[in-house]
């Protein structure tokens, strides 16, 4: 925003029009940079009843009442760095003041600081309230005593840390400028800016204390976890003497006393007290303990023995239920996530030790974060969802597990990190593309070409090396790609290359292989949901009766082949497909699906599925390549039924065609 302020200052100091080039030269930036800032300039001018007049050939100028121009000049003159001009920036400014100041804020005082009217501040406070609600905090407004924040101490801290994380670097620097750095420290300049915005302390001492804690714990915190722990300690010191509602009792602390993390947290608090000559409350030991328990970490244990130990632990506890082995819920959840992956994708991951180990290690702090109400930032959640839709969808489906054990679902950020582990496992277990090598040269050249292909492309399975004459007689079922030195004319993806496999050929193959891997199904909007397979007010007594009835209709219509019904029932025996909110999503094996389709059944009376009553059934007939789209549809559908208005709308349909159109809109919503 500093550049915007400079542009406004420049325009106000000139009565005539200024060209973009003239402004750019003055501020030593490009013309494009200046043009990009004009929208922000206009937003600010509008608040002062002024207009940014853009005249082709002449440039830009500020137009408006002289008194309004004088008023804005006064604002600019008094602001050395940046004024929070936009409503979003003012919201962040007010939130930052509320968290930093122990006393209540007066609205009149805020209006003066921000050079806006009290009515504008009242509008900004609506945004502040909305933001605080996400953390179960309340904005308290008291006549003559101003505004403040009320709520549980843990929620207060989670909210402040989230605010600090959301501010960009420029905003953090506006809060306070840091004037020292240490080249050997894990704390870079931007981190120190954030920390100093909380409290002016010698953070290198706190860093040293945490490094000693890592030695005691025999594992290192991830950089993100290390910084979050630093922020937490800075908040702890800042909150001394405040009336924050900690709600921490012996019932909270008791189960943690025997843990190594509690012992280390005690040591941290003792060292902090000694160095800074303060007395942190005893409940801070609890907060630091749970923060450590919920932190991502890297083990100091021998890298060879640690996975082996986890394998042993995993196999020993596959037979144990939650009650038998409460202390290792992460192992149980890992088992159930693997069941979901195998059930929905048909991929066997029981022997993928690398995935099991990584999943358990990831879930241990995840379980603690859920248990103790800790939040986790994931700045790449949107990228993960976009680039790994299949893995993200499976991670989202695993929410049924977390809801079962904790009574609540995990956040999008947690889903994103879980999806990365699943994506890695799917990539490792991806079936190789089955290829035929067709060569018009001799056998020797053909075999040499096949060997070169295997050396360059480990994800190819060369089924055979044949001649152009032989391909006309071959059964090509199951062949994904033909690599040929001549044109074959068959209806299978084909790449033509030279017998010597040049660098150009390798690049052509890489493009073709990647295209086949990411190729998603092109599902026809008019066929994926069929009115004949929508049932309203259906009457079934059991899930088995429902499944058998639907599968019979599907087989008669040639959507599925023999074995589909049995594959659904086998999966139902292995793990439940009920997902909460009265919904079940049974599905069969890919191998028995001829044509993809989705069946929707609304029951007149709910039936017992496995553990819950179900009155809405989505039965998926999907091929392997359709999976990501079906899972995305289900996520969209579930979000709909979690919204009261949309749920009422869904249940109000009496006409199958209207319901079909409604479901199609959900299915094809991108």
Automatic annotation (TrEMBL):
Q: Enumerate the transmembrane spans.
A: none
The terms under GO molecular function for this entry are: protein-N(PI)-phosphohistidine-sugar phosphotransferase activity
User: Locate the PRD domain: which residues?
Assistant: 197-302, 325-432
Gene3D superfamilies named in the record: 3.40.50.2300, Mannitol-specific EII, Chain A, PRD domain, Winged helix-like DNA-binding domain superfamily/Winged helix DNA-binding domain
**Keywords, ordered alphabetically:** Activator, Repeat, Transcription, Transcription regulation, Transferase
Q: Does the keyword Nuclease apply?
A: no
Sorted alphabetically, the Gene Ontology BP terms of this entry are: phosphoenolpyruvate-dependent sugar phosphotransferase system; regulation of DNA-templated transcription
Domain of life here? Answer: Bacteria
Domain spans labelled PTS EIIB type-2: 433-521
Q: Which residues form the PTS EIIA type-2 domain?
A: 527-666
What's the protein called, per UniProt? Transcription antiterminator
């Amino acid at each position: 925003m500093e550049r915007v302020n400079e542009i406004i200052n420049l325009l106000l100091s000139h009565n005539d029009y200024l060209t973009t080039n003239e402004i750019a030269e003055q501020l030593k930036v490009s013309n494009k940079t200046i043009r990009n800032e004009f929208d922000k300039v206009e937003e600010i001018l509008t608040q002062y009843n002024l207009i940014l007049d853009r005249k082709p050939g002449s440039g830009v100028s500020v137009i408006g009442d002289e008194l309004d121009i004088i008023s804005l000049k006064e604002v600019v003159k008094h602001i050395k760095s940046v004024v929070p001009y936009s409503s979003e920036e003012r919201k962040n400014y007010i939130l930052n003041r509320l968290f930093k100041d122990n006393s209540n804020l007066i609205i009149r005082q805020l209006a003066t600081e921000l050079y806006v009217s009290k009515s504008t501040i009242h509008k900004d406070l609506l945004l502040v309230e909305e933001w605080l609600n996400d953390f179960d905090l309340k904005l308290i407004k008291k006549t003559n005593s101003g505004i403040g924040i009320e709520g549980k101490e843990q929620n207060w801290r989670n909210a402040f840390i989230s605010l600090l994380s959301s501010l960009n670097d420029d905003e953090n620097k506006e809060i306070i400028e840091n004037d020292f750095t240490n080249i050997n420290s894990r704390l870079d300049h931007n981190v120190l800016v954030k920390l100093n915005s909380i409290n002016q302390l010698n953070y290198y001492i706190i860093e040293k204390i945490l490094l000693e804690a890592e030695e005691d714990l025999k594992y290192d915190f991830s950089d993100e976890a290390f910084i979050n722990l630093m922020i937490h300690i800075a908040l702890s010191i800042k909150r001394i003497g405040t009336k924050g509602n900690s709600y921490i009792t012996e019932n909270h602390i008791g189960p943690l006393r025997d843990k190594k993390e509690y012992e280390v947290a005690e040591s941290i608090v003792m060292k902090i007290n000694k160095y800074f000559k303060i007395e942190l409350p005893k409940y801070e030991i609890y907060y630091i303990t749970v923060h450590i328990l919920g932190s991502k970490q890297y083990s100091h244990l021998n890298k060879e023995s640690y996975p082996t130990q986890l394998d042993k632990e995993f196999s020993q506890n596959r037979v144990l239920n939650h009650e038998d082995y409460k202390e290792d819920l992460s192992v149980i959840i890992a088992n159930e996530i693997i069941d979901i992956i195998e059930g929905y994708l048909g991929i066997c991951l029981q022997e993928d030790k690398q995935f099991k180990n990584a999943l358990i290690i990831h879930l241990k702090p995840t379980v603690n974060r859920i248990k103790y109400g800790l939040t986790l930032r994931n700045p790449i959640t949107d990228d993960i969802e976009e680039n790994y839709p299949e893995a993200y969808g499976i991670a989202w489906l695993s929410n049924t597990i977390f809801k079962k054990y904790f009574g609540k679902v995990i956040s999008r950020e947690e889903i994103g990190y879980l999806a990365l582990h699943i994506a890695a496992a799917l990539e490792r277990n991806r079936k190789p593309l089955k290829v035929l090598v067709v060569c018009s040269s001799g056998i020797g050249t053909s075999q040499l070409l096949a060997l070169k292909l295997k050396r360059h492309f480990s994800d190819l399975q060369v089924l055979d090396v044949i001649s152009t004459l032989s391909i006309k007689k071959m059964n090509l079922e199951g062949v994904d790609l033909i690599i040929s030195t001549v044109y074959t004319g068959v209806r299978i993806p084909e790449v033509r290359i030279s017998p010597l496999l040049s660098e150009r050929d390798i690049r052509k193959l890489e493009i073709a292989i990647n295209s086949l891997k990411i190729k998603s199904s092109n599902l026809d909007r008019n066929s994926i949901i069929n009115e004949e397979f929508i049932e309203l007010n259906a009457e079934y007594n059991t899930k088995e009766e429902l499944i058998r009835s639907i599968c019979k209709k599907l087989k008669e219509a040639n959507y599925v082949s023999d074995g589909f019904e049995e594959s659904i029932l086998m999966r139902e025996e292995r793990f439940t497909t009920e997902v909460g909110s009265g919904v079940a999503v049974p599905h069969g094996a890919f191998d028995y699906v001829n044509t993809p389709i989705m069946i929707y059944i609304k029951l007149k009376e709910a039936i017992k599925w496995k553990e819950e009553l179900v009155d809405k059934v989505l039965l998926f007939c999907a091929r392997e390549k359709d999976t990501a789209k079906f899972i995305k549809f289900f996520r969209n559908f579930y979000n709909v039924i979690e919204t009261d208005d949309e749920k009422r709308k869904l249940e109000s349909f009496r006409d199958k065609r209207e319901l079909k159109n409604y479901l199609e809109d959900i299915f094809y919503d991108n």
